[in-house]
Amino acid sequence: NIFWNPSFINGQKSWAIVENGDGSGSNGTSAGFVTGMGGMNVGAFFGRPVAHGGQAIDVVVGGDMGVKWGVGLTQTLSQTNSNKASTTTLKAGVQVADFEPFASFDVKNTANGTDNATNTTVGTRYHYGEWTPYAAYNTSKAVGATDSDNKWGLGLGRNAKMGEVSMDYALSYWHTDAGYSVPLNLVLSADA
Predict the structure, then answer these.
(1) How far is residue 17 CA from its own chain's centroid?
(2) Buried b (16+ CB within 10 A) or exposed e, 114-130
(3) How far apart are CA 145 and CA 139, in angstroms?
(4) Cα four-point dihedral sign 10, 12, 18, 20
(5) What is the pLDDT of residue 23?
(6) Is 53 or 118 the better-scoring residue by pLDDT?
(7) CA count, 13 A, side-chain hemisphere, 149
(8) How far apart are CA 93 and CA 91, in angstroms?
(9) Phi, psi angle pair for 135, to nearest 5°
(10) What's the rounded Cα separation, in Å, for the pair 150 and 171?
(11) Residues of the chain above pLDDT 70, percent
(12) I need a labelling partner for 50 at 20 to 30 A (CA). Which of 83, 87, 90, 133 fits?
């Protein structure tokens, strides 16, 4: 999706959406749009729920100059009594020769008035017919921590068409400093 790899904005048509949540801090109303502007696609999404009860504002720009590219800027804000945090994240991605590499880096990550938390993610997907192997690596360091938290994962997904229905499934292995998980994802979709 465009929040992981901003280059995917190039495959989207013009759209707008408004989602009405329950009014709580992390599940409130959100809205967004994508539209073409000259030879580029531009999108913005406001109020997207993120971890720790926060909300994000995302701005994404992408184009196709023989290589599909995209850049994004995300600003998150979490206002709780115990933690007034904000994060500014720069994201970039491309689609070239069946590879889809992406990266994100926290330009500014503030919690409780301290500017020293870090978070960096890099990864790629590769299309091999219906199959899509992928890998990602994330390193983060909490405010006040001396050690980084490192996560990495490998997976294999497949997209299969069954008449009018598309089935996507993936099996992956994700390792963290605290242990590992082996998620299985399954999605069925069809055009209305």
Answers:
(1) 18
(2) eeebebebebbbebeee
(3) 13
(4) negative
(5) 54
(6) 118
(7) 12
(8) 7
(9) -150, 150
(10) 21
(11) 87
(12) 133
> Taking the model in full, what pTM does it have?
0.82
Q: Token pair of 100, please?
A: 């889809």
d(CA 89, CA 59): 11
Contact 14, 35 (CB under 8 A): yes
DSSP string for the chain:
-TTT-GGGGGGPPSEEEEE---SSTTS--EEEEEEEETTEEEEEEEEEEEGGGEEEEEEEEEEESSSEEEEEEEEEEEE-SS-EEEEEEEEEEEEBTTB--EEEEEEEEEETTB---EEEEEEEEB-BTTEEEEEEEEEEE-TT-SS-EEEEEEEEEEEEEETTEEEEEEEEEEEETTEEE--EEEEEEE--
Q: Provide the token pair at 35.
A: 């539209």
Picking from 55, 52, 47, the residue whose alpha carbon sits closest to that of residue 19 is 47
Q: Which of 166, 165, 164, 183 is nearest to 174 (CA)?
A: 183
On average, the pLDDT of the chain sits at: 86
